[in-house]
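Could someone model nicotinamide-adenine-dinucleotide with this protein?
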Amino acid sequence: MREVARKTAFVTGGASGIGLALGRVFAEAGMKVMLADIETDALANAVSSLRDCGPDVRGVTCDVADPISVEHAAAAAYQAFGNVHVVCNNAGVGGGSGIDNISLDTWRWVLDVNLMGVLHGIRTFLPHIRAHGEGGHIVNTASMAGMNSGLGFSPYSASKFAVVNMSEGLAMQLAPLGIGVTVLCPGFVRTRIWESGRNRPERYGPAQTPDPASQAGKLAANLAELGRSGLDPSEVAAQVLAAIRENELYVFTHSGPDWRSELEERFNAILAAMDRSAAR
Ligand SMILES: NC(=O)c1ccc[n+]([C@@H]2O[C@H](COP(=O)([O-])OP(=O)(O)OC[C@H]3O[C@@H](n4cnc5c(N)ncnc54)[C@H](O)[C@@H]3O)[C@@H](O)[C@H]2O)c1
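Reply:
Sure, complex below.
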């Protein structure tokens, strides 16, 4: 979608981190922006922080794990701005701690937000975008955790692998309709993802925090440290806007040798296994 000015963007997880940075970059590009988030106070602060950045920035409370809540948020966007063109299914949470002690509630919470949340956004907005016919673009936030197996057996990784796959399939199906799809796969970005427990609804039970002395606890501390020294979210957002304009499927914010070698290792192991199977 080359021309974004005067179009409308809807961004979930818009109260913080990457979502807030997306809202800012869209507003600065002349778009009307609806930020949707579960954290009401942070959302109000986010909206006022962007007030002078663009034509019109508003907020709507939304729990992406709940399809009805997403539909209500979409209705608020249509009422405020008319047609919506860019949808960023970006809200996400991190959780999980070690192979044996990830509760089913934690699996459900992470998959409900990170995977079902993306699905709810697509199911809600796709018929609308197809019907208005003014063009559109869907951005799904996955992660490098959806490309390599670095985080191992975890609901986070499982959800992000699914989002990558879903986006690839969607891109193929929407290309003939002129609707673009981007899957965002960041490495470490300086956000509040490491404090995801702040938004865990009561229905999923208490947040799980791994014993700091355990392997899972050490991994979590290490990842949080890498997050604190990660990329500024504004750099991620600028890459997403460029991908929307150029209609690019993948955005990889981290492409250094370490990230590449993890991918090469995985792909090479898969290809070698295929060769072995073929030789048998
Ligand atoms: N920060 C990183 O290093 C990193 C790396 C890869 C991918 N990501 C992904 O980026 C996306 C944005 O996360 P972030 O890093 O900006 O973290 P963040 O915690 O700063 O922002 C996430 C936002 O999502 C919102 N949210 C959580 N649950 C929600 C729900 N049920 N409904 C609606 N909103 C909800 C939170 O309130 C918050 O505002 C996530 O999908 C995350 O998995 C982040």
